[in-house]
Amino acid sequence: MRARSRTALVTSLSAALSTLALALGLVGCAEPTVAEPTVAAAPPPARMAAIGTSLSVAYDSCGFGDCPQYSWSTGTNAVLDSHATRLESVNPELERANYAVAGTTAAGLDAQAAQAVAFGAEYVTVDIGANDACTPTTDGMTETATFTTQVQTALDRIAAGNGGRTRIFVSSIPNVERIWEVGKERAAARLIWETSGICQSMLARPTSTAHADVERRDAVQSRVDEYNAALQQVCAATPNCTWDGGTVADYRFVLADMSTLDYFHPSIAGQRKLAALTWPKTPFGS
User: Fold this and answer.
1) 169 near 278, Cβ under 8 Å?
2) Core-most of 27, 128, 267, 278, by most CB within 10 Å?
């Protein structure tokens, strides 16, 4: 191959440098990248409270009955990393109270809301609805319209208290049919469900594939879905209220997430998972 002349090489090099300079000039003139604005997390509260059902008192998670130290909301045990524990890392003076009661339906939520307001809670977590669907028979389930009104009354009370500064977090209801799916193959679960009479609207005759039983289970889960839609709607209409976006309802929990004392309530691991799932959805977890 014939060698290129010195003049040709210089000419080629000059052209390349000119092209590079032009390219750099174009880059320099490009519009600067503008960072997306970030939403700052809300300032931590001085006091927080939990209202709702057995879910918020960690029922049957460490033994029979309430185990509030393992509550996803206000729990004190370090292994849990509850909402309260996370808030304490920012405000060590945080005061907490848990007014949730096992077995509570939407009809009892307003009384708990009044307690949270009297406590002066600046942050209130709410879980409600499972007991409205988990009844001895499907005929006993709370009507969705009634449920909606009762929840709205409670949230209105909280929103009006404490100078309107209280932030509310509403958790969706777990998938009740999933409890049946996870536990129905275990003899221990079936025995406990039958002898304790727990959530018979869903858990009666767990191995039956009869059309009536399939329809019954579907009806219960459909009602839970209606309750979740109502919770979202009511929260959207309430000042300073944050809905979890269906995070808890959508979570496909496994056997390890369930207490082996009743195969219905969350285990300690399940409570920890609830805390981890819901925290990013709160005004403080941004």
Assistant:
1) yes
2) 128
* Residue 242 · residue 42 · CB < 8 Å: no
Handedness of CA 65, 110, 230, 239 (dihedral sign): negative
Q: How many Cα neighbours within 13 Å face the side chain of 228?
A: 20
Structure tokens at 88: 């304490």
For 281, phi and psi rounded to 5 degrees?
A: -85, -10
User: Which amino acid is present at 191?
Assistant: L
Q: Which CATH architecture has domain 47-176+225-281?
A: 3-Layer(aba) Sandwich (3.40)
Q: What is the DSSP letter of 95?
A: E
| pLDDT tens sequence across 43-90 | 899 999 999 999 999 999 999 999 999 999 999 999 999 999 999 999
Q: Quick one: which of 142, 108, 140 has its CA closest to 126?
A: 108
Cα of 197 vs its chain's centroid, Å = 27
Using pLDDT thresholds of 50, 70 and 90, give the confidence band for residue 246: very high
Let me know: does 53 contact 100? Beta carbons within 8 Å.
yes
Are 219 and 138 in contact by the 8 Å Cβ rule? The answer is: yes
Residue with tokens 């209409």: 237
Cα–Cα distance between 207 and 62 in angstroms, integer? 28
Answer whether 0.90 is exceeded by the pTM: no
Distance between CA atoms of 15 and 13, rounded to whole angstroms?
A: 5
**pLDDT of residue 218 exceeding 70:** yes
Q: What is the pLDDT of residue 18?
A: 43
Q: Could you give the C-alpha distances from 195 to 162, 174, 203, in angstroms and in order?
A: 45, 23, 11
Report d(CA 274, CA 266) in Å as an integer. 9
